[in-house]
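Hi there,

I know you've been waiting on this one. I reran it after we fixed the sequence typo, so this is the corrected version. Both the input and the resulting structure follow.
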Amino acid sequence: MTSKVETFTPPDVMAPIGPYSHIAKANGVIAISATAGVDPATQKLVGDDVASQTTQIIKSFAAMLASVNSDLGHVMHISVFLTDMANFKAMNAAYAEAIGEHRPARTAIAVSALPKPGALVTMNLTAVERD
């Protein structure tokens, strides 16, 4: 089955910092690009700690998913990229609170740097549309 892939960035999230869209969607499957903890109103990081950045990422995911007939309960997988694994515990606590009871599959990876200066964490995800 062939389907056109739709790509776009909703207006109420951080602007992409490269030549990409935040959302790609086809056949009910949604991919969201790596997202940093940026306040969409200011385009600046919400704080210099991993907990506040994690919470903002999940809020941004919720807004992006709502724009494509989905929500956090329809997330299949999240990849987490941390600049320091010492932040894993604090990220986990903020993540658990922000994501709610749904527990999608997840991968956590340490990286040496991230494209957004000052970002301690970024995440991307795969989800499906609501029925």
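Quick highlight: The longest strand covers residues 29-36.

Best,
R. S.
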